[in-house]
Every structure is written in C-alpha cells, then in structure tokens.
C-alpha cells in the first residue's frame, strides 16, 4: 500500500512517521506528539488512536452521550499505556527475527544454515547465538572462520549448530526438519523476551495491558509458558549441560 505523506523529508531522529489506520495517508510528527492521528486525506478525515488503531468518537454536541464518554475514556487509557504497549510490541516483533550484531538490521533467516551475511554492512555472524564471527567461540587454530564455530557444537555449549535440524540429534524436544526448528527457535526467543518484559514492567502493568489490548490473550502464548515454561534452548543428552542463551 502506498503512503501519502504531507512532507517530502524523511523523519529525523526526534520524529516519527505515523500512518492512518483507515487509509494510506501518513505524516511526520515529533516523537513526543499525541498518539491521536488526525487524517488529512479528504476522502478519510478519520480521527484515530494510534495505540489501539481504532477510530475516536466524533462528538457533535457539547453534551456527549454516555457511550461516547466511555469510548473517550478508553482512549485516555490507551494514551496512558502507549509506551509500555510499545515495549511489549517491540519484544513480540523482535522475537520473530534476529538483528545483525554490527548494524542492527533485523530479519528472519530462511531454511538454510545459521551462517548470516548482513546485506547492509556485510558482517558475517551466527543466527543461533547472534554473535559476530570474530566474537564466536571457535576451534583453536582453525582457519575456516564461522565454520570453526560449528565444530563440536553438540558437546560444547559455546558453539552453535550449522543447521537447526541437527539439534534433534542431541535434544529430542526439537523437530528434525528446518522449518519446524525455525518455528521452535523463534517461539523460545519470543517467550524469553516476554518474560523479560514481565520482569521489567511488573505483573500489574502486564495485566493492565492484557485487559485493555488483549496483548497476550490474543497471541499464541500463555502466561504459564511465559512465566513458568522451560525455555532451555538445548539439553545435551550425553552430559548435564544445557544451553540457555539464544
């Protein structure tokens, strides 16, 4: 969908690009601006809440109805929760991809190996641990760069598999095909981030976010998984070692 913006310039570091939830219009404003969007497109002109992405009521008299007042109150709650909702939304998004450790460009790998080459900065890195090749643990004296990071991965928690499907050979909780492994990897990653959000924001705030936005209830995750699930990445069957970092 094309977005029409009221300025030809790109947003500065202290600005953001907002989009109308109901049409293709967008505009640049300060990051400190209200989370209410006033669409300037003649065919639209909807006033909307950028937090819940719903239309705000148009009160046409000095005496709004009870329904209008209740709806307005809901949008005041949206504004009060907006920053914390953004934290959880960012974690949910980050859980489904991994950022380049050099420039931060994030993406999701295909069904190939865990060796990544960033298209922006050309950094070579490992998708599984998220480290630059120069920071990865590698076999001593090796000359194959990132391939040396895969040597003995099945018995060394500091090394990583070249393919996710290899993990099933040491941990039977993992599937044996790359596509399902990728789903499992990102599910564990997202659950870890949601647990971090819970620890950062606290139970009361997370409950409030879920009551207002169904941010967890409408997702594929449960509170029990987030708070009490076993998020161990790899269990090594031939030793007592586990892999917890991802």
UniProtKB/TrEMBL annotation:
Keywords: Metal-binding, Ubl conjugation pathway, Zinc, Zinc-finger
Domain of life from the UniProt record: Eukaryota
InterPro entries with a match to the protein in the record: LUBAC_E3_Ligases
One Gene Ontology molecular-function label: zinc ion binding
Gene3D superfamilies, sorted: 1.20.120.1750
Annotated metabolic or biological route of this protein: Protein modification; protein ubiquitination
Record protein name field: RING-type domain-containing protein
Protein species of origin: Rotaria sordida
Lineage start: Eukaryota, Metazoa, Spiralia, Gnathifera, Rotifera
